[in-house]
Amino acid sequence: MENQQPRNQNLSRDEAAERARILCVDSYEVDLDLTGAPDPAVSGYRSRTRIALTAQVAGEETFLDFIHGGVASVVHNGKALDPATAVRGSRIHFTPTEGHNLVEVDGTALYSTSGEGMHRFVDPVDGQTYLYTQYEPADARRVFANFEQPDLKAPFTFTVTAPAHWHVASNQSVAERSEHGNGMATSLFAPTLPISTYITTILAGPYHYVTDSWSRRLEDGSTLTVPLGLSCRASLAASFDADALFTTTRQGLDFFHDLFDYPYPWGKYDQAFVPEYNLGAMENPGLVTFTENYVFTSRATESQYEGRANTIMHEMAHMWFGDLVTMRWWDDLWLKESFADFIGTLAVAEATDFDTAWVTFANRRKAWAYVQDQLPTTHPIVADIPDLEAARQNFDGITYAKGASVLKQLDAYVGREAFVSAARTYFRRHEYGNTTLADFLAVLAEASGRDMGAWSESWLRTAGVGSLEVEFEEHDGAVTSAVIVQEGADPTTGSPAIRPHTLGLGTFELRDGKLERTGGFRLDVTGARTEIPELVGRPRPAVVLPNDGDLTYAKVRFDESSLQVLLERLGTLTEPLSRATAWAALWSMVRDGLLPAPVFLSAVRRHVSTITDVGVLSMILGQAETAVQRYCPPHVRDAEHRQLAQSLHDFLLAADPGSDAQLAFARALAELARAGELDHVVAGLLDGSLRVEGLTVDEQLRWALLQAGAARGHISTSTLEAERQANPSAVATVGQALAWAARPEAQVKQAAFDAALSGTDADGAVLSNDVLSATVNGFLIGSHEQIDGYYERYWPALADIWEKMSIGLATRIVQGLFPLDQDLGTEAPEQHRVVRSADAWLADHAEAPRALRRIIIEQRDQLVRTLHGQAAVLASRD
Q: Of 148, 315, 625, 723, which one is the catalytic site residue?
């Protein structure tokens, strides 16, 4: 075939099931030649695959998946097939014969800059080339020919030829290594245990590599020793805190060994921190890959370290939930991601020194779930995933954070002992296999003695987020009736979604001007209205907090009295989890149009400086900026922006020198300064004329300030280039791209939009994933006069973008460029000109790919929600 990349063909669930009916895979041998990778003119590499399989049904045609740059040969059972007929796009067709079969494919795979398949990155610091792979859900086919579905597991043996001085790694350790005398070496890796294609991996480049080990005595008296490894780019070695990473890793292995009572099965445990990563991390057994944003080149807050620990634990939990036992198809993605999200947080809370893991979960992870679950594209946790494009988009807040929230509720519902017992049985019963929801519910029913059918139907097979609110009746200063009211409907069906909840309910009183806890108890909520006898016959508490302890998944609605007290006194509530739950509820009310944005912003200005958890603080500061920019109508926005800017300036100066809070305020100030009011502060921090005791303007903060200055037209492109050249780094490359596109000049906006829409720079070079996103984000910084005119080209380009680009890059463009920042006019929100444009596109493109339509539907809904929020502000002032 010609050296061209075929169209990225989708794979349906039905096609995968048919392929699994026809065959099972016995083994893979994959040989990759990466010797040309350092040469940017070399676009691809040789990829050879030998697949041994057994035909369960003979004589029926099937196919391999391979997104390639040319196929030289296909050999089936020693017979060469004609690539011109066997290779059709990204599928290689053949007909298995009875019994054992051997298929061999020799072709060219292509390096990527999109973070999909084999990603190639050139370090701006030293010019060195780095490679790594990222496959989930279906991009292993960009590197080698395979059956790209999770239920066709097999052992994999990888062979990689690369420059001899490179560190080369995979899921297993190197079994043999030979140098060729030409500066190249070949590494043969030991075979893996049976795993799915999407969790195989290759790492290659001059990575900095550090080793250690973890050991544990087993019940039979033997000792399990797991070699540990850490790697990052060589230019990041000085910032690589390997000792801290090894400590967290050992804490996790201890915790999961005890929790699951199933020894770590994958041999070594390497963790690689890689550039331009599309995800937080990926659970490849034996070689977990992480975004190198977790290698902190600038000062990191305690919250950032906690976030890294959470990701480490999340991926480690996958060694069992996901790698050892894998979902059969992507419908049951929650069987790995929800469990890893819940149990990863549990590990951080119980195995490390980070004592705010559940506070962060309540405020950040669940906020993601609540947003996702209110979109018109919401879905049950157990989703209907008809194809791979749908699977890619279901790595969302429902599958991760809602699923984890529901598992936290399940833990409270059946008890920790039953939950852990079920997990242990699940691993033993299904090790190295594939499962569905029914398999896990079966072991859970055995362990708990409960019929899990009704619970499963209520929580896993319905969509939407309900709300909980306490209603009171009083007489002569005493409560005569207290009822917790549950409301909710499944937006996908319109039917009521009243779920069983085991939750906490906390009561608080004002004492010496402070909110102090006076009581708390567990409550089982089973219907639309549940009596609370514990509150009857006594004075009504100053604040009643439903879901105290954050045990369940529901939006909290405050009774009017509690709401008013919280708005006045929230800063005096010192319990971190209760405080985080209250703040999350207030933001939810803003998004739902129940609390005008200026009221929320007033509470932020009054109380945010009292927040001790920097993760919650950073989250609320970000919400405050969103409240100003999107939920305030134009004539209110300027005043609210000025007040928030002044408050951030005051908080920055008043914060304890060198504290995490000080850094959080500085970062939020730089973000807000893009829209004005803080020019003198930005300039002073950049040129050193403004010094804040304890605050270091490090690389991350400096580029945030440069972006703000550029957005205001105060920093030239030549200054930005000089800054990047003075201290080249990945941070500087992305920082410069955003700052350049943010400049309020017509020619700059024109060039930025052209680059964002095409995914290429002015010279036609393809933008990497991170630089593309930075360009998009920079373009969006500006007035309506500066950017609105470009959207005439946005809508007609969508279908072509989706057709020609990888899903990852296309998503960044389509979602990123959608014009979300809009002002409410005289028309109703649903009649706004951008909403009407989205509606027209959806009507005219009813046959567009579901994944593309989903992005437009979701962005449209987000816009309508913010416009309704602006309308709520106007209504509150009438």
A: 315
